[in-house]
Design a protein that fits this description.
Elements: E1 15-21, E2 24-29, E3 35-38, E4 41-44, H1 45-49, E5 57-59, E6 65-69, H2 73-79, H3 89-98, E7 106-110, H4 116-125, E8 130-134, H5 138-150, E9 157-160, H6 164-167, E10 177-180, H7 189-195, E11 201-207, H8 210-222, E12 226-231, E13 239-246, E14 265-272, E15 283-289
Parallel strand pairs: 7-8, 7-10, 8-9, 10-11
Antiparallel strand pairs: 1-2, 1-6, 3-4, 5-6, 11-15, 12-15, 13-14
Helix pairs in contact: 2-4
């Protein structure tokens, strides 16, 4: 099992996602002799998981059943243990696209946090790219290193425990893209520029406050970055449902027409906007470093 390569069968030591419903799932580390308790009963790893295909429907001890899914960055984002506030798929999709990431890209990231974006980056740049991720907090850096090893992506990532604003990313002239998710990104713009290749690249900064964005944009301009732009991604999910609509009364029927039906309605399916929607998560500021 690897987060960047699909495996067909579940093996001892794998991470699997126990799926009960779209709003009820959790990760489990498969271990010989291990057990996992669910509301449908016990899942016995040795007999119910190991050797089964990912995607299998597994019956629990109380007769209920769950699906056992192969982990992906998207599923991990929904199920990972939160050590910090994380980025979700809506922002992650825009980041990977706007940074122009592809297999073989070299990326610098700070901070690592809970690893939500890190896993998405690794899946995008595999099999020949590399991620240099910097985390200021020592315990979070150690936990991230452990998780990358368990998820079979450790060969694609280097985790550094240091202050990126003071010490940079530990590399110079190698990155195609740089991502910043730190309280004062303007202090790391110089290090981001130094880490990027001579031919240039892209940088992205995620900040929840517009004052942070203003200072970051000013620092980017001072460091001769171009194409500076800031966007905010707001997700509105439409609900497809059946609705009843009243047929219009067109007045007195003409001779030969079918008789009108009083209070007639027709049922159809339509997309309804939500009454409430998730608001601001953060601002994404992008910029380009030109060739030197």
């Amino acid at each position: 099992m690897s987060f960047v390569e699909y495996a067909e069968f579940i093996q001892d030591g794998d991470v699997a996602i126990i799926f009960m419903s779209h709003d009820s799932m959790f990760p489990v580390k498969v271990q010989q002799g291990g057990q996992t308790q669910t509301r449908y009963g016990v899942i016995r790893h040795s007999t119910d998981l190991i050797g089964r295909r990912f995607g299998s429907k597994v019956t629990c001890s109380k007769g209920g059943w769950v699906y056992v899914l192969h982990p992906t960055p998207e599923l991990w984002t929904l199920n990972l243990p939160h050590r910090t506030q994380i980025l979700y798929t809506t922002d992650i999709a825009n980041i990977t696209m706007m940074l122009e990431l592809k297999p073989g890209s070299v990326v610098c990231e700070s901070g690592t946090g809970s690893g939500s974006l890190s896993h998405a980056i690794l899946r995008t740049i595999a099999p020949s790219g590399h991620l240099y991720t910097v985390e200021f907090h020592q315990q979070r850096a150690e936990k991230a290193t452990e998780e990358f090893g368990e998820h079979k992506v450790g060969h694609l990532v280097t985790v550094l425990n240091q202050d990126v604003c003071k010490d940079g990313f530990g590399v110079t002239g190698v990155a195609d893209a740089v991502f910043l998710d730190i309280p004062s990104p303007w202090e790391a713009i110089g290090h981001a520029k130094a880490a990027m290749k001579r031919r240039g690249g892209r940088v992205c900064s995620f900040s929840p406050c517009i004052e942070q964005v203003q200072r970051t944009c000013a620092a980017l301009a001072e460091q001769d970055f171009g194409e500076i732009c800031t966007l905010e991604v707001l997700l509105r999910v439409l609900d497809v449902r059946a609705v009843s609509l009243a047929l219009p009364d067109l007045g007195k029927e003409d001779e030969g027409d079918l008789p009108a039906t009083p209070n007639a309605t027709v049922t159809c399916r339509t997309a309804m906007p939500p009454r409430e929607m998730a608001g601001h998560t953060g601002y994404l500021t992008f910029a380009t470093k030109g060739p030197v």
